[in-house]
């Protein structure tokens, strides 16, 4: 029976606003949420893409103020490889499971046309793993290790010229799958005046090639201003170091040169602080959220469509999951039946073919047998004829012998008679 919504039903569906006469306590819900999240801990996954020795590992150590103890990898591989390592770090009771996925041998090959393939495959594989967990009947989303890439730091070579075609191609392939933050690596090797022009050229090239990079969000009033101004500083020109020096009695991270030193956390020297501020201190949650709400959503949508699921039919009417499943099931059954029928027909045909082949060979055998029988009969007749002739010859011989014997007897009798007469 179809229930048609009445005006009364509609009225009931609209929530009524009530005033509380005293404190109830659900205003602690945000705190409960924070406590729960802190208890569960957080995941954050960074992908570092950049050519060999551009300072990827050093920058990670610098960003998280630790030593990830990365062993250097071989750089004579025929293809780009990825190495992901997960670390557990804690800061003021907040536990973070941090995965750093590093490229090995990126840009080392002579043919770099497919350098991005391994990276795209890796990002997709993490989405797929999450989707498979989500589609399970018994899901364990809370305890499941979320390995989806939340941010991709793209290390640009400090050439001072512009982007390489490999950089553009790779970022283009990844920009709908992951939040890309381009950074100019080893920025201490490029002069200040060159740097401004270099940054400008990079941004122009990205826009001209329609590569969309991550923009720090400006919809949250508390961080809108700082994010807006930081968007203008992209790509950040960074310097990393594992060395410390003493400056005015304070231990600071720096790179020392014969002519002076670069202080990593000095904003006049490089954009490292800007990167750390934007990536970790201000927008880490936005990167996580955007990964889930935009990039993963897009992947999920495409995959479900590939699997044959739709939200609306050709008449733009909503289609339930059950209906899609049933349609798919009946289609699948029909195709199975068609396959079965096809195989049955094929089997019948093969049997018929074999039967005909057998019949043909039987006929052939029969003909051969008849021929042999005829030959045998002919041979027998011939033999019998020869035998008969032989018998006749024998009889003739016998008769002649007899005749001869008889002839000889008469001759001797005649001779004997004649001699007696004498
Ligand atoms: N001038 C300069 N050198 C740097 C910087 N960061 C790292 N280096 C140096 O560059 C070299 C390579 O640094 P890594 O951090 O190992 O580079 P990587 O990209 O991780 O290298 P692979 O993992 O081998 O691809 C080391 O000698 C670092 O000291 C930087 O910002 N400026
Ligand atoms: Mg490294």
TrEMBL record:
Cellular localisation: Cytoplasm, Cytoskeleton
Q: Which coarse location class applies to the principal site listed for this UniProt protein?
A: cytoplasm
Q: Which domain of life is it from?
A: Eukaryota
What InterPro entries does its record include? G_SEPTIN_dom, P-loop_NTPase, Septin
Give a yes or no for keyword Hydrolase in this entry. no
What's a Pfam family this protein contains?
A: Septin
Q: Which CDD domains does the UniProt record give?
A: CDC_Septin
According to the UniProt entry, its GO molecular function terms are:
GTP binding
Coiled coil where?
Answer: none
Q: What sequence ranges are listed for the domain Septin-type G?
A: 40-306
Q: Where is this region: Disordered?
A: 401-422
UniProt keyword terms in alphabetical order: Coiled coil, Cytoplasm, Cytoskeleton, GTP-binding, Nucleotide-binding
Any single Gene Ontology cellular-component annotation: cytoskeleton
- Where in the sequence does UniProt note compositional bias of the Polar residues kind? 403-416
Question: Does the keyword section mention Manganese?
Answer: no
Family recorded in the similarity comment? Belongs to the TRAFAC class TrmE-Era-EngA-EngB-Septin-like GTPase superfamily. Septin GTPase family.
Q: What is this protein called?
A: Septin
What species does this protein belong to?
Drosophila willistoni (Fruit fly)
Gene giving rise to this polypeptide = Dwil\GK15728
